[in-house]
Specification:
Helix content is about 40%, strand content about 15%. Helix 2 (about 25-35) packs parallel to helix 3, helix 3 runs parallel beside helix 4 and helix 8 crosses helix 14. It has helices at about 5-10, 25-35, 50-60, 80-90, 110-115, 125-135, 155-165, 180-190, 200, 210-220, 240-255, 260-265, 270-275, 300-325, and strands at about 15, 40, 65-75, 95-100, 115-120, 140, 170-175, 195, 225-230, 235-240. It starts with a helix and ends with a helix. The chain is an alpha/beta fold.
């Protein structure tokens, strides 16, 4: 399948694996890229720029296909050395960067000078237009359904994607609620040039996370996510668990007086315990509503082949059949 996003990124299929904390290691990124989509290493999971350089080198040993690196600019308890992370990306020869959170404008000149394509994750049309204005090559448009940070506007993809198509001139991919061929065909119909999948790629054989995490996603329904940190305007969609129940209760008790320190232990330093050790109630971890559409744990190759084959069938048979007469 050929779209503006496959042409821009030099990939065979219009599917991107989103950056995910303690999930986007070289193993997963390489497996996704080898299957013809775009794998992404999560930059800030690597605690230092030197470790990111090493992870990029590991991915190079596993794939000769394009892959990218995600860097997220979100409120953290200690600001990472972003310039050094970008230097590791440039020196590692990576040509695609996914940015998220705050604007990457300050780093755009250096990234452009290195010939790097920048995809910025946006949760609103106004932010997508700003990304286009500062020179981003593409955007990932995140609907309210998405795991992680959906922004504060609460616009689902059935509205957000066609609105983005009306306003943007650069390519964009749909993110949030994307899991299968139906997602891809729907995203294309709504004006997107492909799709970005996060939660779906956690439940794959190559995702280097604990089996408990994969089975929790398979067992979950579309009703099993919660929105946390809304009072802090740093909303995150997470999978419901005992720790999240406590977090929601604290938010309810504190109301407008909530401070990040009140919930620090339930949101900070959680990912290694969940993703590596399999402690499912350790704290809040990102998961999309799309968990309700995830019923198995295939390899990345099996998943992407299935999506592309079924998408072709949907377009050429089901949809074409509706207008054949």
């Amino acid at each position: 399948m050929k779209t503006r996003i496959t042409e821009l990124l030099g990939i065979r299929h219009p599917i991107i694996q989103g950056g995910m904390h303690y999930v986007g290691f070289a193993e997963l990124a390489a497996a996704v890229s080898n299957a013809g989509a775009l794998g992404i290493i999560t930059g800030l999971t690597q605690k230092t720029p030197e470790l990111l350089a090493r992870e990029i080198a590991r991915a190079r040993e596993m794939t000769d296909q394009p892959f990218g690196v995600n860097l997220t600019f979100l409120p953290t308890f200690q600001a990472p050395p972003y310039p050094e992370y970008f230097q590791a990306i440039v020196e590692g020869g990576v040509k695609i960067v996914e940015t998220a959170g705050r604007s990457p404008e300050a780093y755009m000149p250096a990234l452009k000078a290195a010939g790097i394509k920048v995809i910025h994750k946006c949760t609103s049309v106004r932010h997508a237009l700003k990304a286009e204005k500062i020179g981003c090559d593409a955007v990932s448009v995140d609907g309210f359904e998405c795991g992680g940070h959906p922004g504060e506007d609460d616009i689902p993809n059935m509205i957000l994607l066609p609105r983005a198509a009306e306003e943007l001139t650069i390519p964009f991919v749909a993110s949030g609620g994307m899991a299968d061929a139906r997602s891809l065909v729907a995203a294309l119909a709504l004006g997107a040039d492909g799709m970005n999948m996060g939660t779906r790629f956690i439940a794959t054989k190559e995702a280097p996370v604990h089996e408990n995490v994969k089975q929790a996603i398979v067992a979950a329904t579309e009703l099993d996510t919660r929105l946390v940190m809304r009072p802090l305007r740093n909303t995150e969609r997470v999978l419901a668990n005992a720790a999240v129940d406590r977090l929601v209760e604290i938010e309810r008790e504190k109301g407008a007086d909530l401070k990040i320190d009140d919930i620090h232990d339930l949101v900070a330093g959680v990912y290694p315990r969940v993703m590596i050790e399999g402690e499912m109630d350790a704290g809040a971890w990102s998961c999309g509503m799309v968990a309700g559409l995830i019923h198995d744990v295939p390899s990345c190759q099996e998943l992407i082949d299935r999506i592309m084959s079924e998408a072709e069938g949907l377009i050429n048979q089901r949809l074409a059949g509706m207008i054949a007469g």
